[in-house]
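Hey, resending since the last one bounced:
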Amino acid sequence: MNRFAKSSLIALCAIAPVSTILAQDAAAPPTPEQQLQQAIETRQGLLKVMGFYMAPLGGMLKNKVPFDAAMAGNSGTHIEQLGGMIPDVFTFDTRKATNVKTKAQDGIWTNQADFKAKADDLVKAATALVEASKSGDKGMTLKAAGAVGKACGGCHDNYRNK
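The structure tokens again:
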């Protein structure tokens, strides 16, 4: 299965729970609890897909996966696209959710400007990774991949419970 087909399948699986819930009762608006659940499942799906593309970069940085500039560039391209969606999937405040587990911290909604800035930093780092990977230079590409990981960590450190 080619990489595009895999990423399409992963994206489809990530949004399937939301699509199913919406299709169950299209005539009636979702309850507040259903809205909370949908918002959480949507963003968790997006972040799982992001993790799929981060995995090869982490493997390369730890020397557990052979260096592959094309793979790093592909991951960077997808992370760049997905990173731009992060603020969108966190617009719905889910702090009142009681039936759905979430690692999101309150700061996401109390400091949205900083949260968005961190997502923008991720997109910029991913863009730089794509450019570095085009050179084929291992050192430059891995340095850029490390910056992507640092950008992810910057958000996790401030806005994600362990």
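The chain is about 75% helix and 0% strand.

Sorry for the duplicate.
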